[in-house]
């Protein structure tokens, strides 16, 4: 009888373990590249879309449109992270917070990243084509702005503002287009609020990396604002609250909505306390706290329609 090869004699599970392990590690790296392990970014992008869907739908957004937008936000946030990391793959290794990202650490290749980005854009395209033509047009503009962000931020002195214009608030306009096929005044007020909000929370985030960014020459609003950072963040917080107040007046909202805006104001005051010493840990906590700002505004809108 012929001898049995030791490799062939191994139990199936043992023989397949190395391949399964490699596959699991690869999927884990892809998940980190898509930021699936850090959902805070998805929530920060989702809240403005939900505000707009509820206002545009008068408290009863279309279930189909709602599902498409939730999935679209998840997909586009992941796509934005991939293209951002691709553009920053030679910068991130020099920043303590980002040096372990898959592309920066060379655990994922640029070709793999671009393939993932293309796949995500295809999924986003399939989702948005289920909506009306006006929304599709806005989606293409939004996609171009999103793709441009990682490159514009290299020359624009306040990339956090461009993030809001291109990514943070564009879903507001798309939500109104999907629900009403129009962009009324209140849509632009909500868009302005979302743009300013993105500039606020991303400036808080940029304060964490300020020393590294100064050393390597990266631009950010935290660097632009310098020692006036806390004051100017406070000014932006007041501007956002003002825009939300105008939204309430335009829609003739009452106490439930106003309570949501007041709750957001209290959370902003707490963020000012957290960043009082500009400590990175405090700035990170202030950044993360913004998910509750978005929630507070949404709950105010939701209850306004429920109990109006």
Please provide a written account of the structure:
With 308 residues, this protein is an all-alpha fold. It has one domain (34-306): Tetracycline Repressor, domain 2 (Orthogonal Bundle). Helix content is 76%, strand content 0%. The protein has 14 helices and no strands. The longest helix has 27 residues, at 280-306. It is globular.
Element layout with pairings:
Elements: H1 6-9, H2 12-33, H3 40-56, H4 63-87, H5 110-128, H6 133-152, H7 159-168, H8 170-180, H9 185-208, H10 210-216, H11 221-225, H12 229-251, H13 255-274, H14 280-306
**Total number of β-strand segments?**
0
Provide the CATH architecture. Answer: Orthogonal Bundle
User: How would you spell out the order of helices and strands?
Assistant: HHHHHHHHHHHHHH
Q: What is the percent of helical residues?
A: over 70%
> How many domains, in number, for the residues?
1
Give the uncertain stretches in residue-range form: 1-16
Output the CATH homologous superfamily. UbiA prenyltransferase
| Structural class label | mainly alpha
Helix count, per DSSP?
14
Distance between the termini: 85 Å
Shape: globular
How confident overall, as mean pLDDT?
90
Query: Beta-sheet strand percentage?
Result: under 5%
What's the CATH topology label?
A: Tetracycline Repressor, domain 2
Biggest sheet: strands, sense, closure? Answer: none
Radius of gyration: 22 Å
- What is the highest CATH level, the class? Mainly Alpha
């Amino acid at each position: 009888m012929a001898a049995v090869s030791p490799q062939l004699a191994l139990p199936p599970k043992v023989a397949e373990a190395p391949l399964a392990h490699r596959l699991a590690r690869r999927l884990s790296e892809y998940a980190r590249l898509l930021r699936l392990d850090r959902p805070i970014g998805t929530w920060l992008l989702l809240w403005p879309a939900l505000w707009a869907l509820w206002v545009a739908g008068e408290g009863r957004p279309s279930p189909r449109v709602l599902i498409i937008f939730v999935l679209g936000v998840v997909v586009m946030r992941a796509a934005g992270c991939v293209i951002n990391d691709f553009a920053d793959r030679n910068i991130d290794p020099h920043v303590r917070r980002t040096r372990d990202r898959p592309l920066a650490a060379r655990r994922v290749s640029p070709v793999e990243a671009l393939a993932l980005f293309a796949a995500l854009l295809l999924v986003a395209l399939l989702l948005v084509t289920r909506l009306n033509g006006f929304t599709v047009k806005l989606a293409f503009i939004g996609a171009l702005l999103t793709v441009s962000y990682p490159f514009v931020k290299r020359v624009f002195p306040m990339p956090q503002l461009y993030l809001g214009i291109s990514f943070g608030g564009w879903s507001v306009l798309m939500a109104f287009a999907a629900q009403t096929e129009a962009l009324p005044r209140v849509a632009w007020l909500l868009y302005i609020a979302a743009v300013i909000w993105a500039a606020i929370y991303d400036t808080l985030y940029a304060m964490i990396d300020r020393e590294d960014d100064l050393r390597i020459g990266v631009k950010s609003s935290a660097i632009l604002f310098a020692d006036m950072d806390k004051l100017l963040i406070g000014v932006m917080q007041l501007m956002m609250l003002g825009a939300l107040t105008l939204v309430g007046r335009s829609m003739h909202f009452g106490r439930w909505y106003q309570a949501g805006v007041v709750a957001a104001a209290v959370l902003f005051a707490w963020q000012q306390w957290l960043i009082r010493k500009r400590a990175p840990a405090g700035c990170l906590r202030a950044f993360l706290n913004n998910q509750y700002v978005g929630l507070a505004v949404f709950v105010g809108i939701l209850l306004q329609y429920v109990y109006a």
